[in-house]
Specification:
The protein is mainly α and about 190 residues long. The chain is built from 9 helices and no strands.
């Protein structure tokens, strides 16, 4: 690395922080039983894909090793090789965003997702709707019930703030910053 150029070191520090946040996410995922669930139900759309996760981490680690070698040797080809590993790793990382980022609402369980509508709470069976609509008095009562339910004020919910969504967000922002820093450093080394 040419003296006086700190950009490769900034990229190295950013890459190291990104790797640490990624390791934190994987550790918490394993501790919460995510790895076991992914092995038991690989077709579940809410489960992490082990090959995607391994590919993401493996490509990133290979790029990180290449970047360390570039910083130590100053060989521009190693910087470009690190970027070649990092680009698809970022693509695989983006594909995992919905798994790592908690949604504000509750997720629908697998059982209720496949249950018939009539078995779900608050859903009236179709034959009951037809019966009520065939009678004027029952139809008016049904409309009143629907209007009352739909215009009722939702119950006050206590907001539970959590910093958990900031971990994958920080990981993603650092990954993009790292890629940009590494790209500029690789251009500068060429």
């Amino acid at each position: 690395m040419p003296s006086g150029h700190a950009l490769p070191l900034y990229a190295l520090a950013s890459w190291l922080l990104t790797e640490l946040l990624g390791a934190l996410m994987v550790r918490s995922w394993i501790a919460s039983g995510g790895a076991r669930a992914a092995r038991q139900q690989p077709a579940d759309p809410d489960a992490m894909s082990l090959p995607v996760l391994a590919g993401h981490a493996g490509l990133n680690l290979a790029g990180f090793v290449c970047w360390i070698c570039f910083v130590l040797s100053g060989t521009a080809a190693l910087a470009w090789l690190a970027l070649v590993f990092m680009a698809p790793a970022i693509g695989l990382g983006i594909s995992t965003v919905t798994i790592w980022t908690p949604y504000p609402g509750e997720r629908v369980s697998a059982e209720s997702r496949h249950a018939p509508l009539s078995a779900q709470p608050g859903v009236m069976p179709e034959h009951e709707v037809r019966r009520r609509l065939s009678d004027d008095e029952l139809a008016a009562q049904l409309v009143n019930e629907l209007l009352t339910r739909n215009f009722a004020q939702p119950p006050a919910r206590r907001v539970n703030w959590s910093l958990r969504p900031l971990v994958p967000l920080g990981h993603g922002v650092l990954a993009i910053a790292t890629f940009l820093l590494a790209l500029l450093a690789a251009i500068g080394a060429t």
